[in-house]
Design a protein that fits this description.
alpha+beta, globular, four-stranded antiparallel β-sheet, 22 helices, 19% strand, 558 residues, single chain
């Protein structure tokens, strides 16, 4: 099959199949993350980002390829999550800019668009690292340009792009030593290869065998349940089940031994508590949405199978009243907009306790997220608008979230400053250095300077066997991570915590703050605190229930 020109409709199908192929293999991409932590999320981030782009394309299918490309760029830009998602959005931002005035393109213009994408992406990254998605994109685009000089067939150009993308991916361990040490290829590069494979399959008129049927996602199903167009036609008092309840169950082996999980049984048992029930599960997580008068009963039932994470309960009667009021034409004068405050601080946190801590020391808005779920560019844009301040300061608290925050800063009119905090302790220390009476430049300088005054320790568990940083790590081992580097491993959680603190605490350490999470018991916390007070008697020990998932302990050392 030979294709000499590419229009918007065919390109839209390429995008959709590329997004589907990535979606199917997202977990495989997650597994390529170098650290064996339970929150590797490159595949998840790229999938959510690409899905957002594909959704915008579906809503703008037309003959003009420039307009379809612009729709893809817009969807990706707003949905971008994590560094990999932001880079993906920049690749197609440059691609789209290159073709925005064209109704269709030939092979040379097609290849040039990939090259333009690479140029845009490299400019967006302050310190590009070779052996990553950037390298794979660059090598593939270069091969595409060479191919376009010898053929006018777009299919053949795409074939060469995919072939070189795969070859470049296989070379990433030679460029990035940590990949070679662990024995994996770059996860972001793998995600890009999957997208390109979907593009090629669509151009050749093929459907990849692993492309799923177009089942709606949980978010789409919930959205359908809540479709606001019907809200004005019912009375608030007629709502039978008043609480929209959403939660996730992290399945646990010890509980499953007594209560084997079966999705159909789980769904049937929950149905007695309400309606609009949605249940989606995999080997590790169960996602639940239900409208109920007894949300507590739903949560209690879920706990029979594991621990609860990401709980959200909303009073639909109050929501409905607000929606009806919003749909009713106002008979009075429109209220004047609220006056903007001088400063507004936005921070990112995973764990109810950590979120409350941030609010208590001055955060105006806390976006739920972290390593397990990176907020999108759009999440930051919405928060910036809601904070309603002249100067917005963002604390991402994760190195994989910084780029999305910076991208959001470029999209709004407000003066936005992103403090590059990479951990929760860094974010808290920076926030404590904020002075509402100081000038913007002084606050930025003081908050950035504060980042280097704190050390961060984390205790979590390994999800696979690996060899990294000179440590032989087995699935299930507890790991102690100091400022991003795995320092200790142990079969026992508390021993790992003690070993890590022994390595991190020095004679100069004055304050040790312990944030304990969902996986830590009161007995473990008490034993650890007693150990610290005896071993590090000159340091002040503070303890807070962070309620964070996956990380039993987070240590802040100042």
């Amino acid at each position: 099959m030979s294709i000499k020109t590419l229009d918007g409709k065919r390109f839209a199908e390429m995008v959709i199949q590329g997004a589907n192929h990535l979606s199917v293999n997202a977990k495989m991409v997650d597994a390529l993350n170098v650290f064996p932590v339970p929150d590797g999320d490159t595949g998840t981030n790229m999938n959510l980002s690409m899905t957002s782009g594909a959704k915008e394309v579906r809503n703008n299918v037309q003959e003009h390829i420039g307009k379809v490309g612009s729709a893809l760029a817009k969807g990706l830009l707003m949905g971008a999550r994590g560094n990999s998602g932001v880079i993906l959005s920049q690749l197609f931002r440059g691609f789209a800019k290159s073709i925005e005035q064209k109704s269709s393109i030939n092979s040379k213009e097609f290849a040039a668009a990939f090259e333009a994408g690479v140029e845009t992406a490299y400019k967006a990254v302050m310190k590009p690292v070779e052996g990553t998605i950037l390298t794979v994109a660059k090598d593939a685009a270069k091969k595409g340009l060479a191919a376009a000089k010898n053929t006018d067939d777009i299919v053949k150009v795409m074939e060469e792009i995919v072939k070189e993308a795969k070859a470049s991916l296989n070379r990433t361990p030679e460029l990035l030593p940590v990949l070679k040490e662990v024995g994996v290829v770059d996860s972001g590069g793998q995600g890009l290869v999957l997208v390109y494979e979907g593009f090629l399959a669509e151009l050749k008129g093929e459907k990849l065998s692993d492309v799923p049927s177009s089942l709606p996602s949980m978010d789409e199903l919930v959205s359908a349940e809540h479709h606001k167009s019907v809200q004005g036609h019912i009375n608030t008092e007629d709502i039978e089940f008043g609480y929209c309840t959403e939660f996730m169950v992290k399945l646990e082996k010890d509980k499953l031994a007594n209560n084997p999980f079966n999705e159909d049984t789980f769904r049937q048992d929950l149905s007695q508590y309400g309606d609009s029930l949605l249940v989606i599960s995999d080997e590790e997580i169960v996602k639940v949405h239900i409208h109920s008068e007894q949300p507590g009963e739903c949560l209690n039932y879920g706990q029979k199978y594991g621990s609860l994470i990401k709980i959200k309960i909303e009073n639909m009667r109050e929501q409905h009243s607000s929606i009806v009021e919003a749909q009713t034409p106002l008979q009075t004068e429109t209220k004047a907009p609220k006056k903007k405050e001088e400063y507004g601080i936005i921070t990112v946190a995973m764990g109810e306790g950590i979120a409350e801590l941030f609010k208590s020391i001055g955060a105006k808005a806390v976006i739920e997220g972290g390593q397990t779920m990176n907020p999108s560019t759009e999440d930051f844009v919405k928060a910036i608008k809601e904070v309603n301040a002249k100067n917005i300061i963002i604390l991402p608290n994760n190195k994989n979230i910084i780029m999305a925050a910076q991208q959001a800063a470029e999209l709004v009119e407000e003066n936005v400053i992103v403090i590059p905090s990479k951990t929760v302790p860094q974010g808290m220390t920076a926030l404590l250095a904020f002075n509402p009476a100081a000038a913007v430049e002084d606050n930025e300088a003081n908050m950035v300077r504060a980042l280097d005054t704190v050390k961060t320790g984390q205790i979590t568990f390994a999800v696979r066997d690996t060899n990294i940083d000179g440590l032989e790590i087995e699935n299930g081992d507890f790991m102690g991570i100091a400022d991003g580097k795995i320092k200790v491993k142990n079969k026992d959680k508390l021993q790992a915590a003690k070993q890590l603190l022994d390595e991190m605490m020095t004679d100069d350490s004055e304050i040790l703050t312990i944030l304990y999470g969902e996986d830590a018991t009161e007995e473990e916390v008490e034993e650890l605190v007693a150990y610290c007070e005896e071993k590090f008697e000159d340091a002040e020990v503070e303890v807070h229930n962070g309620k964070q998932p996956l990380y039993a302990f987070i240590f802040s050392i100042e």
